[in-house]
Specification:
Elements lengths: L1 H9 L3 H5 L14 H7 L8 E5 L3 E2 L20 H12 L2 E4 L4 H15 L12 E23 L2 E20 L5 E25 L2 E12 L2 H22 L14 H6 L2 H16 L20 H5 L14 E10 L2 H10 L7 E8 L2 E11 L2 H9 L3 H4 L4 E12 L2 E8 L11 E2 L4
Parallel strand pairs: 1-3, 1-4, 2-4
Antiparallel strand pairs: 4-5, 5-6, 6-7, 8-10, 8-11, 9-10, 9-13, 11-12
Helix pairs in contact: 4-6, 6-8
């Protein structure tokens, strides 16, 4: 009882003062506040496929003696932590790459049993995670204090280590590094000890010692560092307009502002204001393409003169972006689904050219050539690889027994007989 009283009264609770973040280290299943923030992030428009091959330990350090000489100072399971953090955020769809060889072996077994065409192809990722644990510095700060009087005393010692990780995203199409995030975390160790050494009677010596140590688990600190890097990665992508939140107001979500730097906070506010004034977010390979200027709202439709009234005649020439063309209609449908192109802003038209049936996938109806060219420049690299171009279209209203339909014609795609392409899909 006496040593405990001495320890509580003389030695201050420096452990709580030095820790940056409160961790529940009594159980492995306990989650830190950082992980709670990670899973509480606002939702994105679409989840982003991403691959993680290996998140390596690049420190090359081992635990000091008397520990095992082959025991590393940090865990070797960082890749699993990165995959878990990306999946828990709700923004990314990690693909299995660490155990890829095992996956391919299992697929070979299935093909040998069921046939060559029994399995679909594996998914590919537009982004890849690289990086690792790049630093571990010991004893960056040490100290302590103690007191002893008439053989009764107490003392306290502490030590702080530093852990550094780097997380990079790489464009798999061009090998360019898109983002690079570096996070530093501290690891705290503390020892408190009390002792008594005195004669209570003649030839009666009392000697007692007691104490305790507390250490931040390295794997929990590493997990917090990876979770923090995932949050900062999402914020950096938002600021650079690589992806977007499902709701415009979530750009200034409290969690995003909490982890963003002052510069990024102002840029998030500016981005929200810009998109609010002009609701035409830039096109990226991870977001839906925005609606076209000629889509009417429900309110406009309800205020029309009659439910059966025809839309106003569009006599002006309009412009669209032709994304791809093929003789295979199903291929274009698959491309539209793969690129997450909204059906209400894209159409597939039939073109009779050289006595053959061709199909073209077009996006948008723009009032001016300048609007179409500006949108064309904002297309993601994946779409630009198909060499899209701006085509000039004319819209006419045609009456049918079932109501009013729109037919899209492209001047450059008319055949020698003057036939116009037929609109196969209009949403």
């Amino acid at each position: 009882m006496l040593p405990d009283l001495l320890g509580c009264s003389i030695v201050p609770d420096r452990y709580s003062q030095l820790r940056e973040i409160q961790h529940l280290t009594d159980a492995w299943s306990s989650q830190s506040q950082i992980h709670q923030d990670l899973i509480s992030l606002p939702k994105p428009i679409n989840t982003i496929p991403i691959s993680v091959f290996n998140f390596k330990d690049q420190t090359g350090q081992y635990k000091p003696a008397p520990a095992n000489a082959f025991s590393t100072v940090v865990t070797q399971g960082a890749t699993t932590m990165v995959v878990e953090a990306l999946a828990d955020s709700g923004w990314f769809l990690p693909l299995e790459r660490e155990g890829l060889q095992n996956l391919l072996t299992e697929r070979k077994i299935i093909r040998a049993r069921n046939g060559e065409t029994s399995l679909p192809p594996l998914f590919g990722a537009n982004l890849m995670i690289e990086g690792g644990i790049i630093g571990y510095d010991s004893n960056i700060k040490t100290g302590g204090m103690g007191a002893q009087y008439l053989g009764i005393g107490a003392n306290e010692q502490y030590r702080m280590d530093a852990l550094t990780i780097n997380l990079r995203t790489v464009d798999t199409a061009t090998s360019k590094i898109i983002h690079s995030i570096t996070v530093n975390k501290t690891i705290l160790s503390q020892e408190i000890a009390t002792s008594i050494f005195r004669f209570v009677k003649f030839k009666r010596l009392l000697e007692a010692e007691g104490g305790m140590t507390r250490n931040d688990p390295t794997q929990l600190i590493l997990k917090d560092a990876i979770d923090t890097a995932a949050i900062r990665l999402i914020i950096t992508g938002l600021v650079r307009n690589n992806w977007s939140t499902a709701k415009l107001e979530d750009l200034t979500h409290p969690i995003l502002l909490q982890y963003a730097s002052p510069d990024y906070q102002s840029r998030l506010h500016a981005l929200k204001h810009s998109l609010t004034q002009n609701r035409q977010p830039s096109l990226s390979q991870h977001t839906h393409i925005p609606k076209t200027p000629f889509q009417k709202s429900k309110k406009e439709n309800n205020t029309s003169a009659s439910p059966k009234s025809n839309p106003p005649s569009l006599t002006k020439e309009l412009f669209s972006i032709q994304l791809a063309a093929s003789e295979d209609l199903e291929k274009l449908e698959a491309l539209r689904k793969e690129w997450n192109l909204a059906p209400d802003v894209t159409s597939i038209i039939k073109i009779n050219k050289a006595k053959k049936k061709w199909y073209a996938l077009q996006f948008g109806h723009f009032k001016t050539l300048e609007q179409a060219n500006r949108t064309l420049k904002q297309l993601p690299k994946q779409l630009k690889s198909f060499e899209p171009w701006v085509t000039q279209s004319a819209f006419t209203n045609q009456q049918s027994n079932s109501g009013t339909s729109h037919t899209t014609s492209t001047a450059s795609d008319t055949n020698s007989k003057g036939e116009q392409p037929t609109l196969l899909r209009t949403q």
